Amino acid sequence: MAQESFQDKTEQATPKKEEDARKKGQTAKSKEVSSIGILSAGVIYMYFNAGQLTQKLGENLKETFTSIPQVASGDLGLAVYMSNTIQGFLIMILPIMILLVVVSVAANLLQSGFIMSVEPLTPNLSKIDPIKGFGKLFSKRSFAELLKSIFKIIIVSWAAFSVLKNDYSQLIPLMYQDNVQILSMLGSISLKVLTRCCYVILVLAILDYIFQRWEFEQDLKMTKQEVKEEFKQTEGDPMIKSRIRSIQREMARRRMMKEVPKADVVITNPTHYAVALIYKPGEKMTAPRIVAKGADKIAFKIKELAKEHGIPIVENKPLAQNLYKLELGQEVPPEFYQAVAEILAYVYGLKKKKANAR
């Protein structure tokens, strides 16, 4: 029989393991969600700003080329020329770059939420181990990723080709058109291709995220032994906890037994239960208080201590059973006042007789 450490992972991950994985930066995440977010944001931005972007591009190119003679003649420094050219193009593409960065971050936050972890950035020599790297290269996961990539390329290519096939007849006459018409037609066709690709990639992203979520949950699954070990770490070893509880009960029992000699009376049923009561009206007691109680062996010890210290023992089966159900240190409830009062009166009478006899 296989050892338990090698058994299949059949148990769902515990909240602690999920939290530990999250602290390490491990979450269910699909790259396709980020891809479709970035692609869609780019397409939408170009749809509304393509004209303005094209105009700025033309102005930058015109300024770049018209400034070349000034650079050649020495009227404009090469450093200033390069700085102005780069600055112009950066200002032009900065809005779309900011948009794509924001969308990329939002796509990741949407999938996994905010995670503050530096562990993924910590150097790990095992990641550059050539043997392990070679093994990962031919692993089932790598093969699955390869199949997914091939499938994605085929689907996206088919989507793009279906658009070009429908607009193929409009491409041939472009050789007779001017530059503006050519650019306008190519822009329109490109927009159709990208839009259809977005639809296809969106479906692929949803399916891939579902798959990544399922795969992540499978990776986090635990063996029964792992669940037991985690329980011991979080809740403590059951045997140790049982031993601690046993010691605590014994200490509480000893403290309780020290109170028996101070009691005024011990009420029994007569064999199974014993309850010791004390009543000191001058010590702000509104009613007699239970200072010790026990059943069977403990009841026997309470009666032995009572005999040793001359504490009266009174047999009252129903009263002993009812008082035993109360908490240690609790005062006697009003419904038992009369029965307890009669016993205490009897006890005080015995004490008075003994005092008079002396």
Question: What's the short version?
Answer:
By secondary structure, this protein is mainly α. 68% of the residues lie in helices and 6% in strands.
Descriptive account of the structure:
- It is rod-shaped, with a radius of gyration of 43 Å.
- It has two domains: 9-220, no CATH class; 258-357, secretion proteins EscU (name from scop, 3-Layer(aba) Sandwich).
- It is mainly α and 358 residues long.
- Helices cover 68% and strands 6% of the residues.
- A hairpin with a 4-residue loop joins strand 1 (265-268) and strand 2 (273-278).
- It has a four-stranded mixed beta sheet, sandwiched between helices.
Fill in the keyword field for this structure.
358 residues; mainly alpha; name from scop; 2 domains; 4-stranded mixed β-sheet; 68% helix; disordered N terminus
Low-confidence stretches: 1-6
Number of strands: 4
Please state the structural category.
Answer: mainly alpha
User: Strand share of the residues?
Assistant: 5-15%
Which percent range fits the helix content?
Answer: 55-70%
Average residue pLDDT:
81
Q: Could you give the distance between the termini?
A: 81 Å
| Major beta-sheet overview | 4 strands, mixed
Q: Biggest sheet, strands in spatial order? A: 3-2-1-4
